[in-house]
Amino acid sequence: MNLTTPALLFPAISLLLLAYTNRFLVLAQLIRHLHSQHRDNLPDVVVRQIDNLRIRITLMRRMQTMGVSSFLLCALSMFLVFIDMIEIAQYIFGLSILLLVISLLLSLYEILISTKAIEIELEMVEQDLQKRL
């Protein structure tokens, strides 16, 4: 293992964290929208949407924690290679990759949950249409 091995992971982790941040901002915007739209009256659909958002926020926090930890361990691995502690660097790099995989799996689960949120949103649209008819 040389210095370029963990360095290859740097851009991927950086882009992943950027994507997670964008998803978090979208969640925050959706929560603010729900709050402003339904301050006094919370229909069942909105309560279900809020529950879904809580789960997604928890997953997002864990995804970001795993991603940042992966990034830090990758940097530590590079430092260990730099000071010729190759064997320890390999273990640290392996742990970095494991945390990255966990982060990606959490991301996949959050994506699956987000489709459920879209289905709940569609229910709200259907309810509005039924009221108008």
From TrEMBL:
<keyword id="KW-0812">Transmembrane</keyword>
<feature type="transmembrane region" description="Helical">
    <location>
        <begin position="12"/>
        <end position="31"/>
    </location>
</feature>
<keyword id="KW-1133">Transmembrane helix</keyword>
<feature type="transmembrane region" description="Helical">
    <location>
        <begin position="63"/>
        <end position="82"/>
    </location>
</feature>
<protein>
    <submittedName>
        <fullName>DUF2721 domain-containing protein</fullName>
    </submittedName>
</protein>
<keyword id="KW-0472">Membrane</keyword>
<feature type="transmembrane region" description="Helical">
    <location>
        <begin position="88"/>
        <end position="109"/>
    </location>
</feature>
<dbReference type="Pfam" id="PF11026">
    <property type="entry name" value="DUF2721"/>
</dbReference>
<dbReference type="InterPro" id="IPR021279">
    <property type="entry name" value="DUF2721"/>
</dbReference>
